[in-house]
Amino acid sequence: MAKETPFSAVTRTMIDNWLQTSPEDAAKPQTVYNDILGHLSIKMRLTLFTVTSGNPKKWHMKAIRHSGFTSRILNINKIFADCYVEDFKDQKYMEDAVIPRLRQVMESQQPSMELVKTRLFGINLGYDRILIPQKNTTRPQWVISSSYAQFLLSPPQQHEKLDVADEAIVQLLIEGATAKEIAETLGVSPRTVEHRVERLKIRYGARNTVHLIAMLVTAHAEKMAEP
């Protein structure tokens, strides 16, 4: 699996492109994001909000690049299908985590980057997000949103850094996927998945795959129980 491009590098490229635009000659959003489309990892997503009025709920959101990873707990790509903000199924999520920050970047016409911790359909999730508004002499006509998602279930021993492939495998193991299903989801061979699972068993001292999954589930339950 190819090495993951850091989200910081993706955001830096977009900011550099945005800095070269001018409010007097309002740029198209592609000017900002075209250079990074080939560098988005499976954990990154790119969305375009089209501004048509002063009411954020009337704005349209369109996925320019879906996340390459789909959890069985939440099908992010299906949930964030192209729609108007007012038609999004979880309006509380929009009102708490999206609309206030969209308003802010629209008013300031300055990018904003932050770690978002919120709930979507009752599930805790967190992600890094950058919002980039169009420079315009009046009101921006679009806002780009790019995010780098954390997986919904935490792997054990958070102090140990897992690469993106192992994080995905851990997530899917916890959700009950087989090696074949994991391979199909990640676009790799079952043999590659089996090899990585063997390395994870050694890393965590698991006797077998069942023991490894039990360790992962237990660690997740303990993490969720923390105040």
From TrEMBL:
Coiled coil: none annotated. PROSITE patterns: HTH_LUXR_1. Residues 176-203 form the HTH luxR-type domain. GO terms for biological process: regulation of DNA-templated transcription. SMART domains: HTH_LUXR. One of its GO terms (molecular function) is DNA binding. This is Helix-turn-helix transcriptional regulator.
